[in-house]
Amino acid sequence: MVSSYQQGGASSSRDEESEPLTNGSYAPANSRNNNNGSLKKWGMGAALVAVLGYTAFNHHGAANIPKAGDSVDLLGKHHPKHGAKSGKAEKEEKHVMTRAEMNGELFDDRRRYILHDYDSRAPVSNFLPGVAGVFGKPVWSFYVNRGQGIASFGLTSKEYPMLEFSSANKAYQLTPYIGFRTFIQGTRGGHKGTEDGSSFLIEPFSPANAKVVGVDDGDDTKPTRTMFVGTNEMEITEVDSVHGVSTSVTYFVLPEESFASLVRKTVITNTGDDDLTFSALDGLAKLEPTGGKLQWGLKNIGRTLEGWMGVYHADDTLTLPFYRMSTEPSDSASVKIERAGHYCISFVEGQSEDLLPIVYDTTKVFGFSTTLQEPNGLLGSSIEDIVKNPQYGDAKTSSAFAALQKVTLAPGESITITSFYGEADHIEKLPKIVKKVSKSGYSTKKLDRARGLMNELTSSVETHTANKLFDGAIKQNYLDNSLRGGMPVILGDLDPKSRSSNADEDERLKVYHVFSRIHGDLERDYNDFSIDPTFFSQGPGNYRDVAQNRRNDVVFSPRIGAFVVKQFLSFIQADGYEPMTVEAVAYLVQDPNQSSRVAARITSDAKSAKILGDIIGGGIFRPGQLFTLFEQLGIKLSVSNQQAIDEIMAISTESPMAVYGSGYWADHWEYYLDLIEAYTSIYPDGEESLMFDDELQYFFSTATVKPRAEKYVVDYTFDGKAKHILQLDATEFDMGKVKEQAAFRNQTTGLIANEANWQRTGKTGKGRAFKSSPIAKLFLLGSIKYATRDAYGMGVEYEGGRPGWNDAMNGLAGMVGSGMPETFELSELLKYVLGVVTKFQRPLIIPVELGEMVAKINNALDELTASGYEDPEVLPNDVPDELFKYWDTVAAARETYRNDVNSYFSGNTTEISAEDAIEMLTNWFDQVQMGVARAMKIGSNGIDDDGTSGVPPSYFSYDVTKWVKNNKKNANGLPLANAKAMKVGVFPLFLEGPTRYMKLIKDDDEKMEDMYNKVLNSGLRDDELKMYFLSADLTGQSYDMGRMMAFSAGWLENQSIWMHMSYKYYLQLLRGKMYTKFFAEMKGGGMLPFMDPDVYGRSLMECSSFIASSAFKDPSVVGRGFLARLSGSTAEFLSMWKLMFMGPNPYVVNEEGDLEMQLIPTLPIWLFEDLEDGAEGTRDDDGNLIVSFKLFSSILVTYHNTLGTDLFDVSPTSYVVTMEDGSTVEVEGSSIPSKTAIQIRKLLGVKSIDAYF
């Protein structure tokens, strides 16, 4: 039903003053009872309708997925109008679009994704990236395809909103009402100046006028609405042919300014053929004030909270309202007066010297319509009257509407209202902000800069192939990968020496990651994201996310060297676990003389120099914090911001930062080899020095893993009929460690120094931080994980209280569970350490405590071997006594070791010779392979799965069948016990098992082919979507396994298509050189951007966390992507891009020990040219097909395909390297020699590389 204030009433003449009608109803200018009929589209409006009226999506279910090479039929998917042809005749008139044509309709010329009739489609949530540049302050903002888009925005986190944060399901409902709104009170001048004009009140983008799919198709009386999704902007448009008005709204985050703002540009165009006189309100229906952390209060005591709220003014007009609370709401003895506030600054472009008045009194607009559905206030008043009369902003949540009064537009004319929504730390700052933003052309330049900034940030993966959608997807994935993992920048770059070095070679160079954040959004409402509103903005991230998303940093930015490897290996703790959250690196200047010298050099007066010297010499800091202090303390710089931070960073030392969190996740260590492999693919000549010559600390968490005797809990089964053992509360907050950290508390500030985060030596805890080489830390890690294998020697136990990558198996730790994915990764870790020790023949220097544990492990293995135990042909579910005894002995050794190093290392070390290490590691590796073989025998069990599929299982549980109570109780008073016998339990298949197993067989073509076919024919294949389930059918499984069972099948982790794991699987196909299979899966719709856009439901450039699989009951949801963008799948996609365009090892050390560069791409011919899909290729002067990409973010590499075929694992026959001075280096053969290869890696004067095949 159309809302009453937009319904057509009796035609009525209107005078120039546009007084409101008393009956609260307005007549549309071309109402059906109005014979005027004079409206016609302005030329541009007609073109817009023609473009936007075309719908490139259907509304069918998920079954119609185009296969590789298929053309996509779009027109035939619409409901025919009355009188339209049907059946065979209609089919003959269809236009069958090629994929290239379809892509042209999905994206505009700015590569923005087009969502036609966006508000009548299935709901979608998204966000602006929250990137304002290195020297900018970001706003976070989320939007949905409802109302005017923006659902929530603010600063720092959801605790500090300007528009209240709501979960997606609520945002879809609330956004059209509490979000941005536009109301237009208009009067038509009448056709050719006659007095037959009419008046109306309309709300563009109102849900009341949204088209209903299948009902309003072809209804010209409903406005046409379109959303354009850009990388750093979002635009919505509405073409209202009834009233002759088109409206467009563009949002973007203000880049590169010292204040943070969300910018909104509203353009209203007269598309009629007579004059339009109108007034308008344009802005936010609900604007929250500042007042500390508000999220909890808004959700729980929202009405009480309004008592603190008020609207203040920077001058005696209505143009600069300041929304803040009087104090931060609290009920304590400490009262904090609120000085900061939110602002809304609006003006008409071209008239920016005159700010528009702001209507902040919500009741003046909506009256007592508390739903905010109808503007009852406007029905009885004019906008001019509202502005003239008093408004009240106390004790309620206010609005922020810019009031445009009495404007006349001739046919075809437009007017633009530009608004800035942000925060200032004091009301006195507003005039300064106004002076800047109101400059002529300012907002247009900033929008251009926001677009250009994204192009610059994603230029690292600039790619030019025949498939432009693929090229765009690479850039989008790079951006989203950087938003989750951070984007590295080099600081301390001061002179030619530093600029020709990497961060390992010049200690002045520092690597700092910007723009990162935990992936919290409207759908991932469980994560509390944080984005600092400072220069060099960043926020903390989850350990596994950051570790994966920084995997290829060195590939894109070789000057960072081994920074990421060393950072993450530093986080390995003495107990073999890692913290949960990674924070930004912090810095410290240790020499006060250097602090004073640099401070004097970069400041303009003695006072500034003194303050700055005290700051950088007084404790740890981050770049963004420094610039905030510069502003707050009035420090005056004599150099640019860039030079200032480079000077400071050059004299600083860096320290990784992290936070324990809750529980120890079993998979955090599994991503280290990916980091190392990426590094050695660029710096193979640096491996020995990195592994043996560097020294790294051990992170010190305030949590301790309990021994088995303190976490094996005797409890009743769910039916209360029996008792069993559960592994509960596996970690504890260790007060002893807390006291150890307290020794480093600053008595002046109360803060604990960063030194407390690193494990030290000596009983007092005040000795030096203990350090080991990276290879020693990897050996420690491998030793502990080897000693944590389950009783059958198969999976690695989830004994830290948390599962592995699949965290929805949260109950598995309680089931005394273990994981084969961790075992497969352990196999690779042991293999790597063994390979490094064998290659360089250097000893391992390890903590003496670890040496004692290793000796016990080896003795236990000797005893097991001496027992003569051999696996029977058919393995029993009950763990054999010999294996149980071995497990018990090794686990006890692990627990003793952890107790010995719980708070400190002794500081003593022991040396393991290369010969002894090789023998030991070989034995361990063999034992792991025996465990893998057992796992394949015991297998899996589920629907249509009898365990003989040959697909590796992922998880096991262990039922403790015999135990003895140990006279201890847990915190809940339940008895604790020691296990004496166990029985293994099995689960259905999970995709993680075969995905990680393929790492073990990737060099065996036959095994890879066999495993691919087994997975394809297993319960892990979604035949309808042509994708892979995260899990097989879980019907009948116990809820004890975790929240996977709580979800509906096909939703979240329960048998859905989890894109990250699917992409990991596809990546393993590529690593295993199964090129034909890989590209068939990609182009067949398994990967973006080759999915069906109608089914996927969002931009084909943006990954999702999961896709609702065919197991989901509602077919209209099947195939749609949910939890968008900040997914680990972006890391996998970038790894695919690296292998496709650069090969696995761009740099190698040849047999003579010389460094060489070799580019060995894996590119299908259809990326050069795909005539079947209408994608014509680009050719060089000799007529050869070419593709190109950016190497190391700056060097253009062009591949000349003289063969005209797939380039699968093919080496070039020659290269031409062009330098920036115009000279060239011509190379015959497959490799570029050392001198030129090093120049390329150092980015010294190299412009481009042409490789010929």
Task: Provide an overview of this structure.
29% of the residues lie in helices and 22% in strands. Mean pLDDT is 90; it is low at 1-5, 7-94 and 191-195. The protein is α+β, with helices and mostly antiparallel strands and 1253 residues long. It is built from 35 helices and 55 strands. The chain is globular, with a radius of gyration of 33 Å. A 9-stranded antiparallel β-sheet has the order 3-10-11-12-13-20-17-16-15, with helices on one face. A hairpin with a 3-residue loop joins strand 50 and strand 51. Helix 17 packs antiparallel against helix 18.
Low-confidence regions? 1-5, 7-94, 191-195
Work out the helicity level. 25-40%
Main beta sheet strand tally, sense and closure: 9 strands, antiparallel
Mean pLDDT: 90
Which strand order spans the largest sheet, edge to edge or round the barrel?
3-10-11-12-13-20-17-16-15
Gyration radius, in Å: 33 Å
Portion in beta strands: 15-25%
| General form | globular
Total count of strands: 55
Tell me the structural class: alpha+beta
Number of helices: 35
Measure the end-to-end span: 64 Å
